[in-house]
Amino acid sequence: MSNTNNSPTSSSSNPSEGSGDFFLDDSTPPPPTELFDAVNNNDVTTVELLLSEGDPIESKNHLGQTPIITASALGYLSLVELLISHGATIEAVDKLGYTALLEACSSGHSLVVRLLLDNGANIETRQPRYGRTPLIEAAKGGYEDIVRLLVERGANKEARDCQGKTALLWAARNEKRDMMNLLVKLGADMEARDGEGKTALEIAKRVEESSDDSNY
């Protein structure tokens, strides 16, 4: 088994988003390349073999991701199931503070989200720099099935991130009209205001006007 650095990627691992919040200790050994290659390739058989041979299930890549975080970001349901069965830490965080659940929600992988919740993932976990919950991440991306699931499981519809935005306010900011309608149907507060005092409708109107102006 090789022990050199590898380069798996994920949807939320944008170096412009808060790099510096979380760091691997300098003494952290380099991750097993074969293990992370197998994870990236959704090679369940090889992952199981490598784990049985002693590759550490909590090893981290250069992004600070453990195998379960990477697999969740990529939507590999069977692989996530395997890692959970081998005792992977569901609440592990990467360098930016993303857990497996936050990754799955921000990437739109509803089956992985359900699996993680069924196995005790914290539905109110937050990415620390921006304060976004799984519901906010899903609403930002327009993933209606995930939003329904999270609300059904008791997610706080009025949770706010560090900018004072709720899931509904983010849906407005990102021009997700269908998501706005869904959140309102699910009971989100239409009168909630962001840090600038704007409601979802006011934000949506401002974004629409800005978009219209850019077309001239």
From TrEMBL:
Where composition is biased (Low complexity), the residues are 1-16
Mapped ANK repeat ranges: 63-95, 96-128, 130-162, 163-195
What the entry lists under InterPro entries is as follows: ANKRD_45/46/60, Ankyrin_rpt, Ankyrin_rpt-contain_sf
**SMART domains given in the database record:** ANK (SM00248)
Keyword annotations from UniProtKB, A to Z: ANK repeat
The highest taxon in the source lineage is Eukaryota
Disordered: annotated span: 1-38
Descriptive protein name: Similar to Putative ankyrin repeat protein MM_0045 acc. no. Q8Q0U0
Query: Which species?
Result: Pyronema omphalodes (strain CBS 100304)
